[in-house]
Queue: 2 jobs
Job 1
Amino acid sequence: MNELVEAGVLYVVATPIGNLADISQRALAVLAGVDLIAAEDTRHSGRLLQQYQITSKTFALHDHNERDRAPDVVARLAQGKSVALISDAGTPLISDPGFHLVRLAREAGIKVVPIPGASAMIAALSAAGLPSDRFVFEGFLPSKSTARKKRLEAMGAETRTLIFYEAPHRLLDTLADMVTVFGADRHVVLARELTKTFETIRGDAVAALREWASDDPDQQKGEMVLLVAGVNATEDDAPDGEAHRILKILLDELPLSQASALAAKITGGKKKPLYQLGLSLTGEKGDCS
Ligand code: SAM
């Protein structure tokens, strides 16, 4: 226990995403002061704890045991024990375990305190050069192409910057699906190995980015975030979600030119942006004058 740690509190502590120096003084003090550390993988976190000579007792809390263990952790908190929750990297609960524990703790009236720090999505967004005032974090896409394309299609008209986590062995397939769904020219940024030796941040039209990554196997390794520019939000003409939905229905029945003309009539929007959205949905190469 130290002056930064209170009895009976659950601390949600962010840890580095690569560079072990990316941890706050407060996070270190809390980790050193708590009675227990719930770690996604005790061996993995052991390296960080050893580096900072933190000797607090650890136990494993991961996707497979979180629901079973959460009630016991909450009971200990209720008895006055202080607990820190950490994951392998970055902020717990962000595509990581912890949601069930935090929810149960809050339902039980336990005080939950965030100790903020690194998260790959925010680090990537801060350096990608894409609009950052409004963005959507989508976590991991489905691993199968059909489901992945379906998920991407649902975001076809999204004007906010889209952020995805991706596994290296799926990078090329996912970029190929993005070409199919968003069109070859949509701007995409690959943020790889952030805070580590081979950190790379590269943005390009998605088809060109895929070609570059395909030509260099090193770019298909490590940890990565993909950020996709939203449909141009500054254009007043940009079709909204409803126009997108209507266009998709019409495209099932009609050729692109007719579908976009009819969608424009139904929604009161302009034909050209609808036609262009249709191109990205159908993968056609068009000519709209
Ligand atoms: N909780 C973490 C966070 O706050 O970012 C994310 C955990 S999630 C299981 C792991 C994924 O995050 C990786 O597959 C990768 O997509 C992304 N990621 C984690 N560290 C990264 C890094 N150093 N560079 C790029 N992406 C990273």
Note: The beta strands are 9-13, 36-39, 57-60, 83-86, 111-115, 135-140, 161-166, 187-192, 200-205, 224-228.
Job 2
Amino acid sequence: KIVAHRGYWRTEGSAQNSITSLKKAAEIGCYGSEFDVWITADGVPVVFHDATVNGIRIEDTTYATLMNIRLANGEFIPTLQQYLTEGAKLEGCQLILEIKTHRNDERNKRAADMAVELVKMLGLEQKTEYIAFSKVVCQRLHEITPASKIAYLNGELSPAQVKEMGISGIDYNEKVFVKHPEWLQEAKQLGIEVNVWTVDGEENLRHHATLDGIDIITTNDPEALKGILAEQQAAKQPAAK
Ligand code: MG
């Protein structure tokens, strides 16, 4: 399965974490589109990758100071509510919601609570999957939305340890599986879903596309991966008569 990292943004008119990037990921048939969530000082969840925008720390500023800042494609920084509202209209593209690691655990929990509240309010429980580097965030998510898919990003826990936390998946950097190739089989046996990030470049995509035990590839090149998977699929089919 293909997840577009920060949406499908390496294409005309798009930008990382823009609503356009989400729509474009859905358009090319990605399994999901990933995006990053911070909460502002006044408690507004916004979609943006970095901790700072133009030198302003998102956690320390109000939404009012961010709302007129434009992304590379001219769109404004979306609030999570705006983002999810657009996502709700898209057929067949999962919303892969990353909660960024905030300053302290109180804020981490608040970010998880606010994101889940919005997801529930918009009726998007089935369509949303969560990812986070923070164990506290993953545990909180598991508490408040136990039926949701939740994957841990930080890479130091084995599939068994993740399973013990009640988390449904691991979403690890590609280097982790070079160090721990045995985790792929371990995860499979335990029913832990495996996502690998951020896999880019033709050769690397090909390598991961054939690696046994990988369920999902998160990439900045979703179109390239789509081509590779289609090719592999075609090669598996018996030759046409
Ligand atoms: Mg992310």
Note: Residues 34, 36, 98 surround magnesium ion (CB under 6 Å).
